[in-house]
Amino acid sequence: MSTVAHPQRQSIRSLEVPPLVAGDRLSRDEFERRYTAMPHVKKAELIEGVVYMPSPVSLEGHAVPHVQFITWLGTYWASTPGVQAGDNGTLRLDLDNEPQPDAFLRILPEFGGQSKTVDDYVEGAPELVAEVAASSASYDLHDKLNAYRRNRVLEYIVWRVWDRAIDWFVLEAGRYQAAKPNDAGLYQSKTFPGLWLDPAALLRGDLARVIQVVQQGLATPEHAEFVKKLTSGA
Fold first, then answer.
1. Burial readout 75-87 (b: 16 or more C-beta within 10 A, e: otherwise)
2. Cβ neighbours of residue 153 under 8 Å, at least 6 residues apart?
3. Could you report the per-residue pLDDT of 134-183, keeping only the tens digit for each?
4. pTM, rounded to two decimals
């Protein structure tokens, strides 16, 4: 039986689109054109006009922390109408930046959020972004941090796995300020009331405790008021 190539792939080949190469300096349109022509590539990012193509991820160094982040944000999403969580979704931030963060949480545009959905992509900045990084030397804490700040990601969380540390940044007066845990050792989101995190539990892999703490946040009057505010304006 003969096979017929997919028409889209035929047209892509006929254009002889150059491959994505880490370190290339591209416009966002050219980045998307090359990325689309390489369906085998699962993750590539454009940060400040430079192409980044992360190497395969390790289990404990990335895959497991990634799922823990997603579980935490997903628990909040499940009880908060008007918000949406995403995993490895491409963000069209500006003409020089198209990251693919490990996780994000946003207020949906119809509920007053600052990002929108165009062609099934998020355009603009989600209110909160979370990344898993190897260490403080990672571009997550340098060029990418600056891109998120400039595009007004309101809260940015970086889990530095090998440093065994979590950074939670809050945008204030155009700059990221390091948030401080409260007296109980918990982080509490300013943008998403009730989004609580026990960083010590997350670092030691105690996911049950992480979920328990965010559920405590979801039971607060502040979270109920936030949901009421979101849904009353929809």
1. bbbeebebbbbbe
2. 125, 126, 127, 128, 129, 171
3. 777 677 899 999 999 999 999 999 999 999 999 999 999 999 999 999 99
4. 0.86
Q: What residue has token string 């992509």?
A: 121
Pairing type for strands 155-160 and 165-172 reads antiparallel
Type of residue numbered 140: D
Residue 157 amino acid letter: I
Counting other chains too, the contacts that 34-41 makes at CB distance below 8 Å and 24 or more residues apart are 36/12, 37/12
227: closest CA among 124, 118, 112?
Answer: 112
Alpha-carbon distance 213 to 194, whole Å? 9
Contact 81, 75 (CB under 8 A): no
Q: Which residue type occupies 114?
A: Q
**Short-list 169, 132, 124, 140, CA closest to 47:** 140
**Per-residue b or e along 165-191, where b marks 16 or more CB atoms closer than 10 Å to that residue's CB:** ebbbbbbeeeebeebeeeeeebbbbeb
- Cα distances from 211 to residues 17, 118, 129, 131, 151, in angstroms, run 46, 32, 19, 19, 30
